[in-house]
Amino acid sequence: MATIAPDNHGLRLVVRYTVLTIIAIIFVFPLVFMLVSSLKPDQQLLADTSSMRAFLPVGDISLNNYYDAFDRAPVGLFVMNSVIVTGVTVVLSLLVCSLAAFSFVFLRWSGRSLILSIILATLIVPFETIAIPLLLIASKLPWIGLEGFTTGWLNSYRVQIVPFIADGLTIFLFVQYFKDLPGELIEAARVEGATWPQIYRRIVMPLAGPVIATAAILKFLVMYNQYLWPLMVVQQESYRPVMVGLQYFFQLNRAWGEIMAYLSLITVPVLVFYLFLQRAFIASIASTGVKG
Amino acid sequence: MKTMQLMSGVALAAILGGSAMAQTELTMWYHGAGNQVEADIINQIISDFNASQSDWSVTIESFPQIAYNDSVVAAALAGNLPDILDVDGPVMPNWAWAGYMQPLPIDESVIADFLPGTKGYWDGQLYSIGLWDAAVAMVTRQSTLDALGLRTPTLDAPWTGDEFMAALEAAKASGDFEFAFDPGMAWTGEWYPYAFSPFLPSFGGDLVDRSTYQTAEGVLNGDAAIAFGEWWQSLFTEGYAPGTSQDPAARDNGFIEGRYAFSWNGNWAALGALGAFEDTVFLPAPDFGNGPIIGAASWQFGVSASSEHPEGAAAFIEFALQDEYLAAFSNGIGLIPATATAAAMTENYAPGGPMAVFFDLTAQQALVRPVSPGYVVAAKVFEKALADIANGADVADALDAAVNEINTDIERNGGYGH
Amino acid sequence: MASKLTQSNSAGWAFAFPGFALMLAFIILPFFLAFGLSFTNQRLVTPNPTEYVGMANYRQLLGLRILTIEPQRDEAGAVERDDNGDAIYPRMREFTRNNADYPQLAGLQEWFSIDRGDRRSFVLARDVVFMKAIVNTVIFVLIVAPVQGGLALGLALLINQRLRGINLFRAIYFMPVVVSIVVVSLLWRFIYSGQSGLLNNLLSGLSFGMFTPVDWLGNPSTALGSIIVMSIWQAVGFHMVIWLSGLQTISPTLYEAASIEGASKWQTFRYVTWPGLRNTAVLVLIVITMQAFALFAQIDVMTGGGPLDSTQTIVFQAVERGYGKQDISGGSAISVILFCIVLSISLIQRYLTREKS
To answer: Could you give the CA distance from residue A116 to residue C143 in angstroms, rounded to a whole number?
Structure first.
């Protein structure tokens, strides 16, 4: 690993850790504010924002806001919906996009650069632009499911999943990463008569730990934090995800304590997913003996 | 033998099941998700209705209010609207014109006594009816008025514009308040046009020319409107009111915490003020020259155009219009019940009740927002103009820009069917 | 990697097909629909049939004119001046409203003006807010791209040390990335609050009370800057991680060689580290630029485009026009304009960062 071995003596060490810690505080303080505020009653919460007490769990601490949040909205349902939609999309996306990137980088076929250019061009298109036409398309798509043949994908999980499986950014990340892999490995495998699927499964993907983790985190974040699309295509509460649920808390009887509690609740799955991938990420970097 | 038993069993089941099948399901959407009080009341109405007859069964889907209009529009595009629809009064002409709603086939004699703001007419037909109306008033405390030495305005003798500004000056000079007046700039969205556009006709202008609804030129940027704009700007430049960066929390609690002397607020928030102080009073709007005017019309029920059972929807809506339910909503969320008889049943609006003044305010001073499909755009444009003027933009230019946009929009929509 | 062994049409198509087909159906097709809509007068909510209107939407968005006029003069012919000594010019509304002499100026509004000696040129635009949105978005990108990329590189260099517990710090620096931008915007609204905000209190405390509280989001000159700071705070961790993986591909033997030669830290960076980061730099720059052009959620939650249009952005205008004002064709036209702007910039970026072999 190409890290720089530092001078680990006394003062230098203290200075380094101090700098790192100050920066860490900068990155973490709003989250601390959110968590601590979720434990306070509204009046105190708002009064505390004008002093350092905003970051301290002092005063009238309780879990009441959390109980109230669960009363106001089916938080568990929303989190479950988000986790299902996000999880399935991430897994499918990793598969589909890595396959595509594999074909762009390691295979030669007619139309390859044209298709890749088109895909990369879609990076520019913000979602809000295509939301309405996409809505019109989604409301007319056919589906064969448990109820037989139906048209229209609204109020379902698939409408929140399928349009987002393939996206330009994920493919781009995989392409950039695959480009850096040594070509000799692939050539050697081909000489030995390995089929492309075998190369994909046995050689390329096991080396792709870092990019899988990066792409997975990014996709997870995008899917988990979606608001506009679920708002448009889901009208039944049973399919709503967490960001639409956030609006339940901004009715006329707004309670900032409950909002903080809800925000904390919906941030937890993401942090868990991130920390889990963190370990996998570190592990795969450490084991990458091919590079450097 | 066994086959006979089986078949008669099946036949029996079919008959029994069949009679239950005769009940038609009606879907309904409501904007109250996240608000437990409203949800309880509407659910009660629905279960009472379902129990009272066997032809129709209503099921409800709740939406958060902020997202409600967008959800309905998206659903309409996808062809997925429910039978019964909840619609905000001034938005109804837009949805009716677009073909989302059909005329409401209820007996109009039922609603004869209803407050005018609760009835939604478009193109000469009734499309929606509301269970309540909403009003705005100047909330303050009697002790504040006494301490500042101000005359208490009444419905018949409201403050003039000058008296109002003098009151603000007195409050500011006293030094007891963070700001003299809280118009509620933190509540972006429909609050701005609802609460502030009535000042325009009081000055002599309007949001759009109501004789033709084809232009805003001259009414929104004429001399009267510019006078309104300059008055509006002075509220902020002179430091009487917190501006657009007001904290939402400060808006929600500021008056109760004693930060503001006067608060321009709706009666749905008034319950809080009543609970906090014993001497809360609700003053009428100031008269800036053409009479004191406040807004009107709130959420109303209607039938979607794609519904195959308008008569069922109408039956439910008529059922919901009974006085006991009007009173229940009023007690729960503090809004004005639609009939005087229902008002007499409520805690707050019965004659002599603490908020009975709002009933009179609505009856005497209310002016609905422009009844036009173009209102949806005009409201957004006006909201921006108000915010820009409050932030110091040139009044005439801001109003000109608003007029340009409204007129262009009306033209591009072929006059909006007027 | 070009050799007979790698030529395979069937495998190539098979592997790429699922991804490409999905993108075709759910991104490319809707985009072409939106593109087509921009040439019509399609509304979101309307009983009127859709009509083809050609470039009308674009003309309305991008219409610009320049009017150069002389200052007002009094009867003696001398230039009228105001208290500051500046020449007084007639108001634009006299030219743009109900003025039969200037029909081409009807409906335009003043955007800005340039003084040229004894005359002034007024730049009039048909949609001033959209012009401001373009300017703000470009400013945002021009500031965020280098600052965020640079800060991320600095953090990556900082984290790329073998210290105990360094992974904990890396995890913390990445944490804002995993929080929804909507959540972040809500929290930072408290921080930026003008009356009792945390930032004002902190700065007051640090300066021993000499600092006067600033209304960060309510003041046109600080609003965009505040949004920039918050956006960088949220996203820098992600790019730090990308730089990190790039740093870790640089061979340690190069570093050893450099230290043997006695290279200073700066020389090591310039001749060993930076060249090895080339591919990573391209990736970081492109991703930051794309994301910066799509600035929307923070504006929607925190400022709504204000105050005085200082935080208007292109995507925010597209959403407001398309959904808020029910003008889908206008919203689509804005999106197409955005696409063209970003396409040109990314082509320029590609040209500038191409491999010079």
So the answer is: 30
**Ranges of chain B with pLDDT below 70:** 1-22
Q: What is the pLDDT of residues A6-51, one digit of tens each?
A: 555 788 888 889 999 999 999 998 888 998 989 998 888 877 877 7
Domain positions in chain A? 75-250
Kindly give, in sequence order, each residue whose CB lies less than 8 Å from that of residue A206, ignoring residues fewer than 6 positions away.
none
- Does residue B45 fall inside a structural domain? yes
Q: Is the pLDDT of residue A285 over 50?
A: no
Whether B159 and B96 share a structural domain: no
Q: Which residues of C touch B250 (CB under 8 A)?
A: 195
Looking at the fold, whether B247 and B327 belong to one and the same domain comes out as: no
Tell me, what's the pLDDT at B351?
A: 87
Residues in B closer than 8 angstroms to A72, CB to CB, are 34, 36
Structure-token pair, residue B67: 């997202």
pLDDT in tens, A169-210: 899 888 888 887 877 888 888 888 888 888 888 888 888 887
Going by pLDDT thresholds of 50, 70 and 90, the confidence category of residue A109 is confident
Nearest by Cα to A19 from C166, C319, B156: C166
C248 in Cβ contact with A284 (< 8 Å)? no
> What are the φ/ψ torsions at residue C252 (nearest 5 degrees)?
-65, -25
Q: Which CATH number does the domain housing residue B45 bear?
A: 3.40.190.10
Q: Which DSSP state fits A201?
A: I
| Prediction ipTM score | 0.87
CATH topology of domain A75-250: MetI-like fold (1.10.3720)
Q: Could you tell me the residue range of the domain that residue B37 belongs to?
A: 24-132+297-349
Same domain, B401 and B301: no
Contacts of B365 (CB under 8 A, 6+ apart): B155, B284, B285, B291, B292, B293, B294
Residues of A with CB under 8 A from a CB of B: 43, 46, 71-73, 132, 135-136, 138-139, 152, 154-155, 231-233, 235-237, 244, 247-254, 256
The parts of chain C modelled with pLDDT lower than 50 are 1-2, 357
